[in-house]
Amino acid sequence: MDLKQAFDIATCTDPGIVRAHNEDSIAADAANGLVVLADGMGGYNAGEVASGIATTVITTEVARALAAAAGHAKEDEDRRAATENLVREQVLKANTSIYQAAQSQPQYAGMGTTLVLCLFYDNRVMVAHIGDSRVYRLRDGVFMQVTRDHSLLQEQIDSGLITREQAKHAQHKNLVTRALGIDPTVEPEIHDYDAKPGDVYLLCSDGLCDMVTDDDIGLTVQALGANLKLAVQQLVQMANDNGGRDNVSVILVRILREYPANRGVVSKFFAWLK
Ligand SMILES: [Mn+2]
Known about the structure:
The chain is α+β, with helices and mostly antiparallel strands. The protein has one domain: Phosphatase 2c, domain 1 (4-Layer Sandwich), CATH 3.60.40.10. Helices cover 38% and strands 24% of the residues. The protein starts with 6 loop residues before the first strand and ends with a helix. Residues 39, 205-207, 246-247 line the site of manganese (II) ion (MN).
């Protein structure tokens, strides 16, 4: 089955009201079940260079790696481990690309980017992230944050220094404790979840979740879930109506049907015997 038939995907990115540049980058590769979002940082246009390298390298390299792995039927546990390795390797390649560009060209010195990606495979979703770009999930009417920010603010919340309520009004909301491209290597946080038809996944940059409450994001996804294109535009509009202080990017993915991995000839044969 072509994975494209399993997903409905809509994307939107916008500079917001205040910023002159859009340093966010987004990419979607429905045929490979991959969506990627990056929020770049750095002087002049270095932020958009960093986030652009991240989304380009990852979509290109994941597609190449999946094509190379195709046809090698695996047991379920092996498939999960292999997919995690594949994701980690491509994230590290993107890290190296950004880091080397920053080292070799003075105008890009110190550039970096957040990263969040979902790779849908075998009725599951692998979520990798670095920094404070997020994934949320709507399932059976419940909207929840899937990723936990790598940010100073989240660390302060975790250690009990401030409450969630205080965090809403905190300064330095956007100080991330992990970013892609800053150091020679990086540790992406990777988790794997089951996914099922009807789920809606939302990826966003902080330009959305800083300007719009989780409740309002969730209600909008639920209300407009039948029209994802309209939903992403509406979410960006809400961020801009509330001030649009940062670039805003949103990706929505709805799972339309199951997408089991090819089990290979031998396991298909045994399934048929059962
Ligand atoms: Mn941002």
